[in-house]
TrEMBL record:
<keyword id="KW-0560">Oxidoreductase</keyword>
<feature type="transmembrane region" description="Helical">
    <location>
        <begin position="143"/>
        <end position="166"/>
    </location>
</feature>
<dbReference type="GO" id="GO:0008121">
    <property type="term" value="F:quinol-cytochrome-c reductase activity"/>
</dbReference>
<feature type="transmembrane region" description="Helical">
    <location>
        <begin position="227"/>
        <end position="249"/>
    </location>
</feature>
<feature type="transmembrane region" description="Helical">
    <location>
        <begin position="349"/>
        <end position="373"/>
    </location>
</feature>
<dbReference type="InterPro" id="IPR030689">
    <property type="entry name" value="Cytochrome_b"/>
</dbReference>
<feature type="transmembrane region" description="Helical">
    <location>
        <begin position="291"/>
        <end position="315"/>
    </location>
</feature>
<dbReference type="InterPro" id="IPR048259">
    <property type="entry name" value="Cytochrome_b_N_euk/bac"/>
</dbReference>
<keyword id="KW-1133">Transmembrane helix</keyword>
<feature type="binding site" description="axial binding residue">
    <location>
        <position position="199"/>
    </location>
    <ligand>
        <name>heme b b566</name>
    </ligand>
</feature>
<feature type="transmembrane region" description="Helical">
    <location>
        <begin position="30"/>
        <end position="57"/>
    </location>
</feature>
<dbReference type="InterPro" id="IPR036150">
    <property type="entry name" value="Cyt_b/b6_C_sf"/>
</dbReference>
<dbReference type="InterPro" id="IPR027387">
    <property type="entry name" value="Cytb/b6-like_sf"/>
</dbReference>
<keyword id="KW-0999">Mitochondrion inner membrane</keyword>
<dbReference type="InterPro" id="IPR005798">
    <property type="entry name" value="Cyt_b/b6_C"/>
</dbReference>
<comment type="function">
    <text>Component of the ubiquinol-cytochrome c reductase complex (complex III or cytochrome b-c1 complex) that is part of the mitochondrial respiratory chain. The b-c1 complex mediates electron transfer from ubiquinol to cytochrome c. Contributes to the generation of a proton gradient across the mitochondrial membrane that is then used for ATP synthesis.</text>
</comment>
<dbReference type="InterPro" id="IPR005797">
    <property type="entry name" value="Cyt_b/b6_N"/>
</dbReference>
């Protein structure tokens, strides 16, 4: 009787339907826990970010020292800073694996197009949020990274220079830029929360996919308690992995130049973004023309957004698509290669390798996905 009375309450009924009695395919594996782990990462980033903002000063003369003040003088400040800085890397690791899982098991196919599109929008917003957050410590790599990346907008015809001036708040990366980036970095995570809610709503409209890629309408279990216990294993494993970086290797994923105060008169030998931007940065660098490079970055996300509509295969899971499965592992290796190229100097042979890897990236989404779908569908019909 008590359970029935709880379900009759509107808010509790919604929670019960979506996080307690929500039916999930019985054969989903641990890769399906990455969505909830990504949610945990977002909560950690928002919580630590709010506390860090209480002590941070968004001024070019004080920003760097305010970060050092947090690290040295604020009680537990070092933990907040390292959790926030490494938390961004953890967030991207989880989301990247989550997206490649979706690619492998065909989670982007009909009727889950909106789910994939919102997921790509979340990735794009994560990249923007992380980039402007990287500027806030106001170290050498922060300053020069902001200068290089924001100046790319100048390649846009007619309005490019006006966009750069608006981003900078003046005629160079200065105090107005830092203030704008701080405001946006505080705001955008809450937009991410909103997009995440839409992502969950899109997921729950048609239910979760499964490793077989087949309908599991009659083979489902309630989310609680089975999948909560299963996800708990993933959460604990992730917490251990995260803690190792925070406590033992807190600066491993950062760049040492960012521990040098920003100096507009001294350009670093190599301007390198954070590791989770390197694959995009490599595609940008592989094209010598600035406008074409910006166009290539736009095409990256256009390709990702268009994937559900480029797909022509009636089969979801790569477990049953032997030709496409080989290309999936190639695109995974290609992204690792692009990330490696992105941190190398702009010289041969890295230039030509980056160009070839960039060509294959677009070849996979724009040619391989639609072509292998039709080819494998034809082979299935021919054999039958």
């Amino acid at each position: 009787m008590k359970r029935l009375s709880i379900i009759k309450q509107p808010i509790l009924s919604i929670l019960n339907d979506h996080i307690v009695d929500y039916p999930s395919p019985s054969n989903i594996n641990y890769f399906w826990s990455l969505g909830s782990i990504a949610g945990i990462c977002l909560v950690v980033q928002i919580a630590t970010g709010i506390f860090l903002a209480m002590h941070y000063t968004p001024h070019i003369d004080l920003a760097f020292m305010s970060v050092e003040h947090i690290m040295r003088d604020v009680e537990g400040g070092w933990l907040l800073r390292y959790m926030h800085a490494n938390g961004a890397s953890m967030f991207f690791i989880v989301v990247y694996i989550h997206m490649f899982r979706g690619l492998y098991y065909g989670s982007y196919t009909s009727p889950r197009e909106l789910l994939w599109i919102v997921g790509v929008a979340i990735l794009l917003l994560m990249i923007i949020t992380a980039f402007i957050g990287y500027v806030l410590p106001w170290g050498q790599m922060s300053f020069w990274g902001a200068t290089v990346i924001t100046s790319l907008a100048s390649a846009i015809p007619v309005v490019g220079n006006s966009i750069v001036t608006w981003l900078w708040g003046g005629f160079s990366v200065d105090n107005a830029t830092l203030n704008r980036f701080f405001s946006l970095h505080y705001l955008l995570p809450f937009v991410l929360v909103g997009l995440s809610v839409v992502h969950l709503a899109a997921l729950h409209q048609y239910g979760s996919n499964n490793p077989l890629g087949t309908s599991s309408a009659v083979d489902k279990l309630a989310l609680y308690p089975y999948f909560y216990v299963k996800d708990l294993v993933g959460w604990v494993g992730f917490a251990i992995f995260f803690s190792v970086f925070v406590y033992f290797f807190p600066n491993l994923l950062g760049h040492p130049d960012n521990y040098i105060p920003a100096n507009p008169m001294s350009t670093p030998a190599h301007i390198v973004p954070e590791w989770y931007f390197l694959w995009v940065y490599a595609i940008l660098r592989s094209i010598p023309n600035k406008l074409a490079g910006v166009g290539a970055i736009a095409l990256v996300f256009i390709s990702l957004f268009s994937l559900p509509f480029l797909n022509t295969s009636p089969i979801r899971s790569n477990n049953f698509k032997p030709i496409h499965r080989k290309f999936f592992w190639l695109i995974l290796a290609d992204c690792f290669l692009l990330s490696w190229i992105g941190q190398q100097p702009v010289e041969d042979p890295y230039i030509i390798i980056g160009q070839l890897a960039s060509v294959f990236f677009f070849f996979y989404f724009l040619v391989v996905v639609p072509l292998t779908g039709k080819l494998e569908h034809y082979l299935i019909k021919y054999k039958s």
